């Protein structure tokens, strides 16, 4: 199939639809987020309420996003050059050490025109998501939140629920695509955090089309002789320019590029560059202003919002987390 404009699949709200059962489970999940975030200062032994995921910040970077003039849909962005803010994090729900650990990294990008948010892209260094069943995912998510926020008895009970639901979704983890990416990550687990590619969890709109996103660093070494991640970033940026290319992969047919099967790599669709991020400044990772920010991708302009059933869950989750942090002295 030729990768031309006519063959690109267009956005349809049906890609996002949830059943009434899933919506009820989402309400329950949001309540567990509220409870977890309400207790997060005590859980993490800090004097502020934390996020419900990606709590540990490694670094915050400021820069510019410059759209590629050759990108056919560049008019989606209001200007060719926009402001950019990046929060680099660890995916864990609790604070973790700044030393090297399991490489579950987050790379949240906020693109803005002065005070106006154009796009929030919460990206991660692993391109796939293992669970496609919305109800199972929500049950696992509820159990994890209750485990961390509960007492000893509740921890035990929710650990049992967690084990049961992980067992039920375990076949998704053995999809060849997913296993290949896990193997690749294991090989590269000690690589420098700034050398990873960072990917969208699922699909986004790009105008009226459907894409996956990928940020690719330019000329960054994979090995750095420093065990503390925050210091390795600081030292590298002190002596080197840091640029990343924002690329997209279009959806042409749902068999090769499925919207709601997140444990399968897309094939038969080349990545194309839509712009470049250039880092200009390192901000203190403990800056409370950054911690107060939300990177909810549903605050994006309409032409850049997330697509898909698992993605749809994130809107309410981000909102309840942010509101709870805000209402608790944020």
What would your notes on this structure say?
- By secondary structure, this protein is an alpha+beta fold.
- It has one domain (5-327): Catalase core domain (Catalase HpII,  Chain A, domain 1).
- It has seven helices and ten strands.
- An eight-stranded antiparallel β-barrel has the order 1-2-3-4-5-7-8-9.
- Helix 1 crosses helix 7 and helix 2 (134-149) packs antiparallel against helix 3.
- It is globular and about 55 Å long.
- This is Catalase.
- It comes from Epilithonimonas arachidiradicis.
- InterPro entries: Catalase_sf.
Averaging pLDDT over every residue, what do you get?
Answer: 91
The appropriate CATH architecture is Beta Barrel
Query: How much β-strand is present in the residues?
Result: 15-25%
What is the distance, rounded to the nearest whole angstrom, between the alpha carbons of the first and last residues?
A: 51 Å
Structural class, judged by helices and strands?
alpha+beta
Task: Describe the global form.
Answer: globular
Count, helices: 7
Rg is: 19 Å
How would a textbook summarize the main sheet? 8 strands, antiparallel, barrel
Question: What is the N-to-C order of secondary-structure elements (H for helix, E for strand)?
Answer: HEEEEHHHEEEHEEHEH
CATH superfamily: Catalase core domain
What do we call the CATH topology?
Catalase HpII,  Chain A, domain 1
What is the number of independent domains? 1
Percentage of residues assigned to helices = 25-40%
Low-confidence stretches: none
Number of strands: 10
Quickly name the level 1 CATH class: Mainly Beta
The side-by-side strand order for the widest beta sheet comes to: 1-2-3-4-5-7-8-9
Protein name: Catalase
InterPro entries: Catalase_sf
Organism: Epilithonimonas arachidiradicis
